[in-house]
TrEMBL record:
Pfam families: His_Phos_1 (PF00300). It comes from Lactobacillus kullabergensis. InterPro entries: His_Pase_superF_clade-1 (IPR013078), His_PPase_superfam (IPR029033), PG/BPGM_mutase_AS (IPR001345), Phosphoglycerate_Mutase (IPR051695). It comes from the Bacteria. This is Histidine phosphatase family protein.
Length: 226
């Protein structure tokens, strides 16, 4: 039995609002973030889910509970938290200004002091971009492409085991992690260049098949348009 996966990006947070790097570090949802999520939750309130899951970071947990509380046609028990669906880890850059961080990454990638992350990725490719992030990190803790790719594969394998008897599930994750999943598993991505960053509260839909193969069929969609 194939499982339909609705991947929701968490709502806007304080660090999103302040333009700070937010990977494994956490900050609370803003009032705007909560209000935007209510729109998503209302749009999905009549969609039946066999289960709901989330990343183990608080901004994702708070988001999934908004989805759960608004849904009128599903009986969801305790939410299982999956660390495999955490945001990308940015090491020593966590909490820093985003533009200053990308400037350091661009220098490490050898493309000069740029702050436009899309331009950096498209110049060197997603693989070299992740390597440059780890290289630029003074403590070299940031996830590189190999580490992140292994975690994405593990995330899909974990979900495959959990959802064998579930036809449709919802999971709340994070912007860069969802984008990187789409670069890998969406047929409209070439697997190397950047794609648009998913909006807070947006829905990315995938199909997880019996044999464990995963593909993304809709990316960064407004829930009201699903």
């Amino acid at each position: 039995m194939a499982t339909e996966i609705y991947i929701v990006r968490h709502g806007e947070t304080m660090f999103n609002q302040l333009n700070k790097v937010q990977g494994w570090c956490d900050s609370p949802l803003t009032v705007k973030g909560i209000n935007d999520l209510k729109v998503t939750a209302n749009a999905l309130s009549q969609v039946h889910f066999d289960n709901m899951y989330s990343s183990d970071l608080k901004r994702a947990i708070d988001t999934v509970h908004l989805m759960k509380d608004a849904n009128q046609v599903s009986e969801i028990g305790k939410i299982k938290k999956l660390p495999e669906f955490r945001e990308v880890f940015f090491g020593s850059f966590e909490g820093d200004d985003i533009e200053e961080t990308w400037k350091e990454v661009a220098l490490a990638a050898g493309v000069g002091p740029q702050t436009d992350v899309t331009k950096i990725i498209n110049q060197v490719g997603i693989y070299e971009f992740r390597e440059a992030t780890k290289k630029a990190d003074p403590r070299h803790l940031a996830e590189n492409k190999k580490e992140l790719d292994e975690r994405m594969v593990r995330a899909i394998n974990v979900l495959h085991e959990l959802t064998k008897n579930e036809k449709r599930i919802l999971i709340v994750s994070h912007g860069d992690f969802i984008k990187t999943l789409a670069i890998k598993y969406w047929n409209q991505s070439d697997g190397l260049h950047d794609i648009v960053f998913p909006n807070n509260g947006s829905v990315t839909r995938g199909i997880l098949r019996d044999n464990g193969n995963f593909e993304i069929v809709d990316y960064n969609v407004n829930a009201e348009d699903m």
